[in-house]
Amino acid sequence: MSDNQSQGKRHNNVLPNTYIPLLDHKTQYNIIDRLSKNSILQFIILWTKLKNTQPRSPSSKYTHQGYINKILKEVKEFKQDFTRVPKRRLIDKIIYEYWAHGLNLLQISQIDCQLIVDKSTNAPLWVSSTVKDMNDAEVPISINPQLFLHALVKNLTNLYLSYIYICKHPKLPIILIRIQVFDLNGMDVTQKPHIVSYKPYFFGILVNSPHVIHSINNDVMVHSIVMQVFERSLPQNAQSLLKLVTPENQFPVKSIESMNILKGNSRFGNSLGIWTPYADGTVDMLPLGAIEDHQVFKQKEKEETPEDGDDVEGIKLRRLKKIANLRFKGSINGTVTPTGDRSKDDTTEESETPSEFDSIAPIQYTEFTIREKPGTNTVERGLGDDGRTSIRFKITGADIFGGLHELSVRSTDPEQMILNPEEAPHWLTGEEGASLGQIKDGTFIKS
Question: What pTM does this model have?
């Protein structure tokens, strides 16, 4: 990741990259332990190269470069014996030997942002806000990271002691921003100022999109201030003021990849479920694309029959899976990968083999309210009652539409099906993404 950090040279209330917070060994261990073993090794190498994170030799036995060479030699040995080296040993090396003086703010910020890139379970949950002008029109934004950093520092340092870290996501068109604010809390036993940190805030600026994603925080006052500072720091002028509008009826999404698909400058955000191939360019090929790739020239798939050597139940199941794939992913084989998703070499020791049912944008929560007319007459209804039912149901899980996809092919017997892919309404196949809404007389209405 390429990054920009605040150095604190012109602002007294900005902590420098090299500031080392007072953290005990257990806290430091927990910070590093959130990383994968591979990422820990990569950070050891990176930190030996950066000026603000280079280790200090513990004795005169080594020169500065000699100590760095010693560390790099040990890392090489760890890599060669990767599977047998426990993660605890690597963390202990960092805490008690390589960086025994403690991790500084730059190192901690880099770890936090790497968790987002690694798709770690310890990464923040995301919600979104929309940038609008004074006429309530959405405004796509594109920032200069360095200029935006200076604006953030200028606006925030009038209110808090702070540290801000900005970097570019290595695969997605997202600029990540980590904002940490501090309070001075008297003196500790060493007669040094004791700094209390608030939970870090994370923002993701989706390039050329009017949407900004950000983490959630329970500290209402500080959260409100940080959001206002971020809003004032957006590229604007007195004649064209911008505001940040946060919808109330939204639930956090775990994956930044999902947020990039749903809120980024991508056709996938409005083309999910059966419409996915239109966003992927599979159906409506580009005007300058190779003509032989057009659907008209592609050989039609051979229809499977019982003569293929399979039993009737197997034929039924394959047909059912094709229907389910079409409904949930818009493809017979169900394989659709949006641009910017996991690359072939993006693997770590914790990576899992993708399931055939995985959604391209996993969503963890959705909620629908079904409002239908049951057929009662006006005499049976109360005053002001339009006669519609109001049934609300919620679905939660790691990948709710991927789970529904899997449930839809559990049985070929219509009587035993939990969800029939031929009859499932479009809003249960993921077409509406993370949108909540009402189902009024069969029509989805976004909340």
Answer: 0.74
